[in-house]
Amino acid sequence: QVQLVESGGGLVQPGGSLRLSCAASKIIFSRYTMAWYRQAPGEQRDLVAAIFSGGSTNYADSVKVRFTISRDNAKNTVYLQMNSLKPEDTAVYYCNAKYDYRGANYWGQGTLVTVSS
Fold first, then answer.
1. Residue from 86, 89, 67, 73 nearest 23 by CA
2. N or C: which end of the chain has fewer CB within 10 A?
3. Closest to 7 in 3D by CA, of 64, 75, 57, 62
4. Distance (Å, whole) CA 17 – CA 39
């Protein structure tokens, strides 16, 4: 029973910051590509940022510079540091773990981020 548990979401004012965390269990964490996706109401679930097993990262254009993804393999945890938040960042943020060699793909339950005055 693989489990991904997100935390850190909440209400923040425009220009503020949040850090999301995703703790994984029952996977060999260091082998997985970890990623954050987000989905606003009525919209598609889109990739926000990904960090590969070797440490390389990719970001959606809309969050480059403002967001930073990182991982701590010793803690089986991936983070998303979100700075300079905008109302359009409001969404449910989902953690994803993927290992193509095993055909493995797992999702967390999501955490809500609301950016509003």
1. 73
2. N
3. 75
4. 19
DSSP 10: E
Identity at 95, one-letter amino acid code: C
CA–CA dist 24, 96 (Å, integer): 10
The DSSP-derived string for 20-56 is EEEEEESS-GGGSEEEEEEE-TTS--EEEEEE-TTS-
- Between CA 24 and CA 22 the distance in angstroms is 6
> Which residues, in sequence order, are bridge partners of residue 21?
7, 79
Burial class (CB in 10 A: 0-12, 13-18, 19+), 114: middle
Is the CB of residue 104 less than 8 Å from the CB of residue 96? no
Encode 75-111 in three state secondary structure. HCEEEEEECCCCHHHCEEEEEEEEEHHHCEEEECCCE
